[in-house]
Amino acid sequence: MSLKRFTKSVLTGECLSLIEGFDCGCSQHTDFEKLNLFLKEKALEYNQDNFSRTNIFHEDGECAAYYSLSMNAINGKKIDVDDQYRSLKSYPALFLTRFAVDKKYQRSGIGRGIINDIIKNAYRDGEVAARFLYVDASPMSVSWYLGNPLFTVLYSELTERIEQCIESYVIEKLNMRLVGGHCIEFVLDGEGELESLKKNCEKILTAHVKDIFNELCETITIFSDCNSKIKLNFENNKPKIVLDNFNTRQNHGNIRDWLKQADNVLNLDITIPLYLDMKKHYMALYGC
pTM of this prediction? Predict the structure, then answer.
């Protein structure tokens, strides 16, 4: 869809009447409702205090879509950059903090048109350099972003978030097992010595963690599909969960396809970190 029919405006107090009826989705879904509420209750304040900049696209007295941008950096992650920039500790990025289209305009192409407009303006901006567009996609929107092949999953950050999610799940299940009592089979080392007792405690904990992870794999099938395993590392006597054989190049295609199904991501209760190389996107659009 061409954006020429719409008027683009930075959100100001004079625009408040345009956003009164904005509704990007079912009110029962918290992600949609949060986007509605932000536009109507917080966006103007964020604009005034320079925490983000919200623009709206409107016609005939109503808001069709809005987006909010702020500055960001992708820190120390393995992303696709030219060799001469791989030593950088961070990469300049625009953060698409919020993006929503009113129900009446969804599936019209306006969303893709706005993404193109953001990239065009950012790439032509001579004041501030930003190579990437960064998005924390909600479970309900991640499939839309991944429909654009130039959006890439930030796999290293995704893995960290999944590990934290697994850790929370394991702690909850461990507490339930402690309260209710739960037997598990393992082989003890020699008894009596303090070091042996410590190793046995670690062995018991590891056995429970692996057993809980196997239960989780029945719901979140991507772990089995990727042949991923769970490791429990002990650093300074503090246990840390590590997801092994997940963030590998051969698994990236499976993970991307799996993320396109909203129900899969809802089971994890996380947002999905994505990025887009704005230079490559601009060149693909305009060839210059």
Answer: 0.88
